[in-house]
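TL;DR need structure tokens for one chain.
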Amino acid sequence: MKTVIALMCIFSLLINSSCKNVIEKEGYVNVEGGKIWYKIVGEGDGIPLLILHGGPGSRSCSMIPGFSLLAKDRPVIFYDQLGSGNSDRPTDTTLWKTERFVNEIDLLRSALELDNLHILGHSCGSTFLIEYMITKQPKGVKSVIFSSPHISSPDWMADAKILLSQLPVNVQDTIFKYEALKNYNAPQYLVATDSFYVRHMSRKSWPIIPNIECENVPGFNDQIYEYMWAQRSLILLAPLRILIEQLTYIKSPNQYFLWQVNMMKQDQKLCTNIKNYLGMQVLKLLMMQHIRQWSINQKKVYEVISKFLNEVEKIK
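>> reply
TL;DR here they are.
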């Protein structure tokens, strides 16, 4: 009799294990327009953290070295948005709309069974994250982290014009000349705009030197960037416009926010008035520069974000 019971228990275990969906640590998920690539780092007991990279048209590989430090406590999920990095690269411009990028998040969550999670959006990734929180009102999101967020294109452009006016006159003239000609690939224009980026977007030399995680990963997708935003960041197109006032719709007693900012004037203004916009219960500010803050200040980023996530998980 004992032998029969034991065999039945073993059989039951085999049935349960065979029915359980095994989530691969790296793979692809079907979304509208193609497949998106993802990678899961870490197996800690904490609630998973999903990372949304910027761009649009950038890739997640540059974020893996720094944010993988958080994998000591929890799984950290990186993915490339459609058209970016290791994901499929369709050329249909009707796919490059905020709504489709937002739907990606739900499809990825469903495929990876991310019922409860934290979400971090960097730069343009924060735009999609804000839209996700507003339009989907998703369940199971324990906290949201906005890293150098893009939340207001008009404010960003106003700030950029101020910073542009501080460049040497000959550099300004070069930028204005080639933008008027719509020749955004002219070597002189690229050099001039690089001088803007190295002053205001990156603590390191520009262009960014690739890390090992980005080896053999397709580079920046200019088609998406130029369609949804603009050439080289200094002019504005409509599809990425989002107003600060929309953030009022993210209020929830069950969600907690970490706001990590760069030093554009719009961010300094938000530092002063942020509680009026979000009504958040938990807020910490980590002052960084826009590009590569996770690789330059890995220890600081890890300490602040890790502490924030652990504090949120203690709150019932």
